[in-house]
Amino acid sequence: MTITNRDETTLETFFSSALYVFSIVLVGILIRAFTHNVKPLKFLKPLANKAFSILNTLVIWVMLPTVVFVSISRYSLSEIAIMGNAFVMAFFGMGVCFVASVAVSRISGDDRKTMVAIALNSAFQNVTFLGLPVIYALFDVRGLNGLGPAALYAVGISVPHLILGVMLAATAARKRINAGSVIETVITFPAAFALIVALLFVAFSAPLPSVARGFFDAYLAKPFFALMLLLVGYQMPIVKPRKYLRDITMVSLMRFIIGPLVTYGLIVALGLSFKTDITPGPSMVQAIMPPGFFNLILAWNYKLDLKMYSAIVFYTTLLSLFIVLPITFTFIF
């Protein structure tokens, strides 16, 4: 499957997309900073927390499933099979980063909690709340159809993230793992369920009506992704990096060097082209996303070092958006 409607891509195009993404993330960061730290505005903290808690629920149960369903159901079964390369790249890159981070952490003599933090943040990146909006800004607004493979890539990361994330966090906190609850969490994960339904539509040759696709593209895509980016910003507490500099560096090595190299190697091995094939571009962008925010939720729920997780997520997100993405864009796209 090849890319259609490719227009001339310049570094200026990239930075305009990056500025759009970061400006919305920054608004979320500022809302959190003002309502949590500025004394005259602290009375708004409960209201802000409640509002963003509702937004988080809407993102997980409405926006992400809708994006996944619409992005997949618009393709034919043969096209989905071709885009399956993105799922393979996601799973393979995740596995290599996970094993490598555990090995390095063990060699460094880290304790269990630190090893789990390094492994989770190295292997599982933010392919949903941040990755999908970035793909939309870089590809789909210019007619390059990046959301399909990006959604498959996201599910390839998110489902293992749910399983291993809960298991590892429970292990770090020395709590018992309930296999039944883990399985239930995966089965009821809305985006995974939406993917299954979309694939059934595709398998039975019942494509989503063009009116529904047009309505999503025209009226839902931009506000959905803007709200997801706003949530990303609000979920990022600012922590001083000095204490966690080694951990940030180790995770950055995995996320921005090892992961992308594995993905690029698979692209070459599969004989794919960035200029003509639909999966390499979105897959490479997803591969250089920073650690996922689900890791912060795990750290909070299992009473792990939330400041360490926050520092890793915050500073790697800045690195991803303003250093790694421009470099990748310059040399590959």
TrEMBL record:
Predominant place of localization: membrane
One Pfam family named in its UniProt record: Mem_trans
A biological process from GO: transmembrane transport
Topology of the protein relative to the lipid bilayer: Multi-pass membrane protein
InterPro entries, alphabetized: Mem_transp_PIN-like, Na+/solute_symporter_sf
Keywords assigned: Cell membrane, Membrane, Transmembrane, Transmembrane helix, Transport
Ranges annotated as spanning the membrane: 14-34, 54-74, 80-104, 116-139, 151-173, 185-206, 218-236, 248-272, 284-300, 312-332
Gene3D superfamilies: 1.20.1530.20
Cellular compartments per GO CC: plasma membrane
Subcellular location: Cell membrane
Protein family per UniProt: Belongs to the auxin efflux carrier (TC 2.A.69) family.
Stored PANTHER family: AUXIN EFFLUX CARRIER FAMILY PROTEIN, TRANSPORTER AUXIN EFFLUX CARRIER EC FAMILY
Protein name: Transporter
Organism, as annotated: Hadarchaeum yellowstonense
